């Protein structure tokens, strides 16, 4: 029964989602519980002077809808979605992949994959990599050329 009389209006206070931590979210389409997504470790290969290929696999979407996926890149460890460089991925399959350009030669970077569904946000373990030395002292991207190869042989 209601504590309101006919014609009266009222309101309820809905606590934040943190107050309901531990409650079960259910996928309306199949009735199964929604859990956090699961991601593989990040792979970084190849690493060049000014770019690096970043990839990770979505092992599970947590039985939910993935609303955001990608990578967080930083030059300091422990970056989050709010303080790292967010590199969204729009790939329609389970592989996240991006060729990140405009990196600085001989610099240390930290990268994590992330995925967001109805249950929340998950991040992979952090991977560290160091970009290679600039082979020619210029700022052009050497994509397609391995550092070990002689530039003149590949022209």
Radius of gyration equals 22 Å
Count of DSSP H/I helices:
0
Indicate the structural class: mainly beta
| Count of β-strands | 11
Q: What's the assembly state of these chains?
A: single chain
Form type: elongated
The percent of residues in helical segments reads under 10%
Please mark out the parts with pLDDT under 50 across 5 or more consecutive residues, or reply none. 141-155
Can you write the helix and strand succession as a string? EEEEEEEEEEE
Strand content: 35-45%
Q: What composes the largest sheet?
A: 5 strands, antiparallel
Mean pLDDT: 83
Care to describe what's here?
It is a single chain. By secondary structure, the protein is mainly β. 0% of the residues lie in helices and 35% in strands. It contains no helices and 11 strands. The strands form 3 sheets. Strands 6, 7, 9, 10 and 11 form a 5-stranded antiparallel β-sheet that branches. Strand 4 (43-47) and strand 5 (52-60) form a beta hairpin.
Task: Please give a quick description of this structure.
The chain is mostly beta strands and 155 residues long. Helices cover 0% and strands 35% of the residues.
Notable features of this structure?
35% strand, mainly beta, disordered C terminus, four-stranded antiparallel β-sheet
């Amino acid at each position: 029964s209601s504590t309101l009389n006919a014609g009266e209006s009222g309101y309820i206070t809905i606590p934040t989602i943190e107050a309901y931590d531990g409650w079960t979210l259910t996928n309306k389409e199949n009735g199964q519980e929604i859990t956090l997504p699961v991601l593989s470790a990040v792979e970084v290969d190849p690493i060049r002077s000014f770019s690096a290929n970043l990839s990770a696999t979505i092992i599970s979407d947590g039985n939910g809808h993935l609303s955001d996926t990608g990578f967080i890149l930083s030059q300091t460890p422990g970056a989050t979605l709010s303080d790292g460089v967010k590199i969204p991925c729009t790939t329609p399959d389970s592989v996240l992949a991006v060729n990140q350009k405009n990196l600085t030669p001989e610099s240390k970077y930290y990268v994590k994959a992330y995925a967001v569904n109805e249950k929340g946000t998950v991040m992979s373990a952090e991977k560290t990599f160091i970009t290679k030395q600039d082979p020619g002292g210029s700022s052009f991207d050497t994509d397609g050329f391995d550092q070990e190869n002689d530039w003149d042989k590949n022209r």
